[in-house]
Amino acid sequence: MKKGILFICCAIIACCLGVCVQISQEAPEEEKDLPKHVILVGFDGLSAYCLNNGADMPTFRKMMAEGASTLENRSILPSSSACNWASMFMGAGPELHGYTEWGSRVPELPSRIVNADNRFPNIFGLYRDKAPKAEIGYIFGWEGMNYLVDTLAINYRRLVPMTPENPGGLTSVAVQYIKEKKPNLCAIIFDEPDGTGHSKGWSSPEYYSMVHHLDSCLAQVVNAVQEAGIMDETVIILSADHGGIETGHGGKTMNEMQTPIVFYGKNVKKGYKIPESTMVYDIAGTIAYLLDVQQPQVWIARPILSAFEIASCEK
């Protein structure tokens, strides 16, 4: 009798487990509530030090207050331009992508792997592969940036340096492009305050004046996103490649290596201080997450997921 009861109980449990497995297999997958647009705004040579020491950047600080941020992001070494921008786009360090110097135009080390365009996998090419019809823009302020991206993946590419004759640099071009094309992915990389840091010093009044001016340029970019009617479906990322000390950079001091990261927009936590130990290449991983792009195995980037509210909904 007891054996019979035990057999019946086991049969019921097995049946229930089988139903649970079937329900689990048939249940619809969750669909991530991701943004349709990601705008990366980078400032060459913007140090975390200046933000910690009173830099007058009201728009930048407002986005920090209403978004998620860290002032302890670290560059790769050397703390120089090309190799760090490459890392930001390529989700890995110079040991893997091969760009090792401030002005690298081609990898000084053989890239660990390359894609069909003979480049180390970068966020522009990966997103193009996933979304062939996506609008991808790349607007930059110094010519060396042209060598760090998969140009064949980009719809609109424009070099506009900041000069005394054109103090706004690429700002007006970026504003017009955002309003007209509403890009799904766009990188806007200013060539300052690096130039001012080299000529006047990273702690100079001129440097602080330049970052204040750049903040006004940032405000115009944010307004363009709003006027384009896409803010509710956009994440704006603020970043930099390195900081500086005296009139240089490339070394191992925190003033040279620490830079800000700010996330602002859809599903971003408000007033949140990012606790992770972030690196410059984690920006690529976070963009990949936001655009639902699978990271290649060669990337070492870690998406900065703590910056976002749980962003999923049932189909």
Characterize the structure shown.
This protein has 315 residues and is of the alpha/beta class. The protein has helices at 2-26, 48-52, 58-65, 81-90, 94-97, 123-130, 171-181, 194-200, 205-227, 254-257, 282-290; strands at 30-32, 37-43, 68-74, 136-140, 156-159, 185-190, 234-240, 258-265, 272-273, 312-314. It has a single domain, classed as 3-Layer(aba) Sandwich (Alkaline Phosphatase, subunit A). Helix 7 runs parallel beside helix 9 (205-227). It is globular.
| Subunit arrangement of the protein | single chain
By CATH, the superfamily comes out as Alkaline Phosphatase, subunit A
Largest sheet: 8 strands, mixed
Number of domains: 1
- State the strand order across the main sheet: 5-4-6-2-7-8-3-9
Q: What global shape is seen?
A: globular
Text of the CATH class = Alpha Beta
Which regions have little confidence, pLDDT < 50, spanning 5+ residues?
6-29, 311-315
Number of helices: 11
Cα(first) to Cα(last) distance is 48 Å
Characterize this entry briefly:
The protein is of the alpha/beta class and 315 residues long.
Structure characteristics:
two-stranded antiparallel sheet, 8-stranded mixed beta sheet, 315 residues, Alkaline Phosphatase, subunit A, globular, disordered C terminus, 36% helix, single chain, alpha/beta
Q: Helix and strand layout, with pairings?
A:
Blueprint: H1 2-26, E1 30-32, E2 37-43, H2 48-52, H3 58-65, E3 68-74, H4 81-90, H5 94-97, H6 123-130, E4 136-140, E5 156-159, H7 171-181, E6 185-190, H8 194-200, H9 205-227, E7 234-240, H10 254-257, E8 258-265, E9 272-273, H11 282-290, E10 312-314
Helix pairs in contact: 7-9
